[in-house]
Write a structure and sequence with these properties.
binds heme C, mainly alpha
């Protein structure tokens, strides 16, 4: 019996080790090599530039490669760019929102409804004006900056939207930080993390309608929801504080009791 258990444990250990060794390098999808990358990377100029930019992008980090956007066959060098293998080529400007919208559905809907979307092809910005086609980064409020947003109109309205969003951003970052702290101390934060995740998505999506009044209105609603999460965290903190005091009280009382017993023994 004992031998079996020991052998079982050894096998389990070996399997875990193997999994750790083999699963790790594959867990980075950016390392996936395709014929697109192999042939384009050494090209000078226009053909190679997208690869260098893409390698540093959030898409590369999440395993979204050339063929996921441009189509084509990533395994067959001879037919990689054949339309018969689904190659789409380079989208025209007016087709870019639909091109990106295959994956970012809600955002492209919001964008198309907006003043920016309505001006597409007539001087309005497309997705790649603000996010680039290949050097796409994780978004931050820094995208709203004077250099970009005053290219076509005054910066005033951009600054107003940014201010409305900044307060929400600050709240999100603060709550996220305390959630991570509580989690580290063993508090069950799953439900609150899910709530925060949903609110954060709602907030980041908010921008594309470029409707300043709506951003202000929605931001205040999102802030109210965020405050609820913060209050529930404050309550956890309060309970722990009380438990700590109760704990100290019990220790104090035990010490006192021990002292009394000691004194009683002495006097008897
Ligand atoms: C064997 C080399 C080779 C492979 C493999 C290859 N490409 Fe290309 N690709 C090229 C060359 C050369 C050009 C530029 C010449 C041209 O426009 O015809 C090009 C052009 C492009 C363009 C620009 C087309 C345009 O209309 O301007 C895109 C987008 C592209 N490739 C994407 C891909 C994708 C996605 C894959 C993989 C599914 C891929 N390529 C595989 C050699 C390759
Ligand atoms: C997130 C989607 C996306 C990914 C991933 C992507 N591209 Fe593109 N690519 C685009 C879009 C959109 C354009 C058109 C940009 C524009 O019109 O400004 C484009 C343009 C191009 C062009 C034409 C550039 C020019 O200056 O004419 C080439 C070549 C190209 N991509 C190759 C690649 C290669 C190679 C990869 C993989 C490393 C890749 N792309 C990955 C979306 C993508
Ligand atoms: C005028 C500039 C601009 C245009 C045009 C634009 N975006 Fe954005 N995008 C932003 C800004 C600003 C944010 C939000 C930054 C923040 O919330 O911190 C953002 C956020 C995002 C996010 C992150 C959302 C999330 O849930 O985290 C994605 C994805 C995105 N945009 C994709 C797109 C796509 C796809 C298009 C075209 C249909 C597009 N954007 C058009 C500026 C732009
Ligand atoms: C094949 C699916 C796919 C296509 C097509 C695609 N994306 Fe993405 N994109 C993703 C995934 C997956 C992520 C990473 C997860 C996330 O943040 O949503 C991402 C992330 C992003 C982000 C960062 C979001 C953040 O959380 O900060 C931006 C901005 C973005 N994409 C813009 C674009 C633009 C612009 C295009 C078109 C040129 C495009 N995407 C096309 C799948 C796609
Ligand atoms: C390529 C040109 C271009 C760029 C870049 C651009 N915009 Fe615009 N924007 C427009 C056009 C065109 C309109 C619609 C006509 C108008 O109201 O002037 C517009 C309208 C707006 C509006 C008013 C929307 C409404 O419904 O009244 C806001 C707000 C706005 N942009 C914010 C921004 C922000 C923030 C940025 C930078 C992240 C930005 N824009 C970058 C072209 C641009």
């Amino acid at each position: 019996m004992r031998l079996h258990a020991l052998a079982g444990r050894k096998i389990l250990f070996a399997v875990t080790l193997l999994l750790a060794v083999f699963a790790y390098p594959h867990s980075s999808p950016a390392q996936m090599e395709t014929v697109c990358l192999q042939c384009h990377e050494p090209q000078p100029g226009k053909g190679g530039a997208p690869v260098k930019k893409w390698r540093e992008s959030i898409h590369a980090e999440n395993g979204i490669s050339c063929h996921d956007c441009h189509g084509g066959d990533p395994k067959d060098s001879a037919n990689a760019m054949s339309p018969a293998r689904g190659f789409l080529g380079v989208p025209k400007e007016s087709a870019i929102p639909a091109f990106c919208g295959r994956c970012h559905v809600g955002i492209s809907e919001d964008y198309l409804k907006s003043a920016h979307g309505r001006a597409l092809g007539k001087g309005g910005p497309s997705c790649v004006t603000c996010h680039d086609a290949h050097a796409t980064k994780k978004v931050t409020l820094d995208i709203i900056n004077e250099k970009l947003c005053s290219r076509c109109h005054s910066y005033d309205r951009a600054a107003e939207i940014k201010e409305a969003m900044r307060q929400t951003e600050t709240l999100i970052t603060g709550i996220d930080r305390s959630l991570q702290e509580y989690k580290g101390q063993g508090v069950d934060t799953d439900a609150r993390e899910k709530g925060l995740f949903a609110l954060r998505n709602r907030y980041h999506r908010l921008f594309h309608e470029v409707d300043t009044a709506k951003v202000k209105h929605e931001s205040s609603q999102i802030q109210a929801e965020l405050q609820k999460i913060q209050q529930s965290l404050d309550k956890v903190n309060e309970q722990r504080h009380r438990r700590k005091i109760a704990g100290l009280f019990v220790i104090g009382a035990s010490l006192l009791a021990a002292l009394l017993v000691h004194l009683l023994r002495k006097t008897v």
